[in-house]
Amino acid sequence: MSLDFKNKKVVLRVDFNVPLDEDFQVTDDTRIKGALPTIQRLLDGGNAVIILSHLGRPLKKRKEDGSIDKKRFTLKHIVPKLSELLVENVQFAGDTVGEEAQKKAKALKFGEILVVENTRFEEGETKGDKELAQKMALLGEVYVNDAFGTAHRAHASTAIIAEFFSKENRSFGLLMEKEIENANKLLNDPATPVTAIVGGAKVSDKMLLLEKLLDVADNIIVGGGMAYTFFLAQGGEIGNSLVEKDRLELANELVKKAATKGVMIHLPVDSIVADEFSESATTLIANSMDIPEGWMGLDIGPDAAMQFSQVIAASKTILWNGPMGVFEMQPFAGGTHAIARAVVAATKKGAFSLIGGGDSVAAINQLGFANDVSYVSTGGGAMLKFLEGKPLPGIEAIA
Ligand code: AMP
């Protein structure tokens, strides 16, 4: 398995699911840039590259008459940006596996690039339809998967298609390789102490991750809305803070398990509390176990930020998944920003830091720190599943 294909027609699955503005201009090209090293390597090898990707959810967000909104979801929108970034002419086919795509793929010369239409215009894509996957496979002789962001889905173009290529004729792309390598750095024999920072809204979303981390981490920092389920479980007063009452027992069990395994769980001792869920709310600093009635914790407080920063400063390996508060609103962004600064400072001192997807990636980007941490993952859900130890169909299909 390697990317050293020469003079082949390569079917390359990438994740070009990028945000667009009202004029269908790409507003954030991070994902396109993420795939460039693989495209470049394939072109350098004298290959012809046929690109498959999805863009948005065209089958869910249909027009009023029930038809697909092709104008909105066509992958043609990303072609100018890709041409600009590659400084190459990029061709486009107006269907995914139909006559036009097959004809253009056949006529494609070595060193040329063809983007075919949004894979999700095809009903069979998300269902993992075999027939569709076979038609996609007909576009080339070799299959490369560089779409880490969709590796947790068993879709036609991300997993099923691989069945139609022999082991020698399928491979991961460079981005996919980098994602796996960095996640494995954390999971397999990391430098200690290992600190995992887990935040975000819901405990239920992160429970499996927390369980898995008990085997890997020395410290688990819990912030964000999910912390209040732990406080309520311990008999605290949490006012109107976010809580999942059906997870109280699980939260207590996790704390107990951590104690038996010698893992320190750090909860935010204080919180920024607000009288309403709004940017213009009145705010106070409160003890997280004693939040006044009617108030809600929307960020970690200054003492918690300081304590967490000290734990992070003493760490050699750091994973961060999920914000410490409602960082989208300026009054509740301070905790997340403090943690970001602490992670950057620890990285400067030699720690390995992995920003594992989702909103913590948004926070790091918001602060312009993306180059000051060791690795920023491009796949939120996929990275979460990988860290939980779940097999990812997109990876299994190639391996
Ligand atoms: P997740 O997708 O689970 O990582 O959650 C991210 C979301 O959690 C963000 O939109 C945050 O605004 C939200 N969040 C973080 N802290 C809190 C909190 N204390 N209360 C309510 N929502 C929160």
What is the CATH fold-level name of the largest domain?
A: Rossmann fold
Largest sheet: 6 strands, parallel
* Share of residues in strands: 15-25%
Mean pLDDT: 95
Q: What does the radius of gyration come to?
A: 23 Å
- The number of helical elements comes to 14
- Find the count of extended strands (DSSP E, 2+ residues): 17
Task: Please give a structural write-up.
The relative contact order is 0.12. Strands 3-4-2-1-5-6 form a six-stranded parallel sheet, with helices on both faces. The protein has 14 helices and 17 strands. The chain has helices at 30-44, 70-73, 79-86, 99-107, 130-137, 174-187, 203-213, 227-233, 248-261, 302-313, 334-348, 359-366, 380-388, 393-396, and strands at 9-13, 48-52, 90-93, 113-116, 142-145, 170-172, 194-198, 219-222, 237-238, 264-266, 270-274, 283-287, 290-291, 296-300, 317-321, 352-355, 375-376. The chain folds into two domains: 9-176, 3-Layer(aba) Sandwich (Rossmann fold); 190-387, 3-Layer(aba) Sandwich (Rossmann fold), CATH 3.40.50.1260. α7 crosses α13, α8 (227-233) packs across α9 (248-261) and α10 packs parallel to α11. It starts with 8 loop residues before the first strand and ends with a helix. β1, α1 (30-44) and β2 form a beta-alpha-beta unit. With 399 residues, the chain is an alpha/beta fold. The site of adenosine monophosphate has 16 residues, from β14.
Descriptive labels:
alpha/beta, 399 residues, 6-stranded parallel β-sheet, 35% helix, Rossmann fold, 17 strands, binds adenosine monophosphate, 14 helices, 2 domains, elongated
